[in-house]
Amino acid sequence: MVTNPERRTALVDAAIDVLATHGARGLTFRAVDTEAGVPTGTASNYFANRDDLLRHAAERIHVRVAVDAGEGTESDPAALLTQFMRLLLHRIADDRTGWLALLELRLEATRRPELRATLTTALRENLEANVRGRREGELPGDDLTTVLLYYAMTGLILEHLTLPGVLADRDLDALVGDFVRRSLPET
Amino acid sequence: MVTNPERRTALVDAAIDVLATHGARGLTFRAVDTEAGVPTGTASNYFANRDDLLRHAAERIHVRVAVDAGEGTESDPAALLTQFMRLLLHRIADDRTGWLALLELRLEATRRPELRATLTTALRENLEANVRGRREGELPGDDLTTVLLYYAMTGLILEHLTLPGVLADRDLDALVGDFVRRSLPET
Question: Could you give the ipTM of this predicted complex?
Answer without folding.
Answer: 0.94
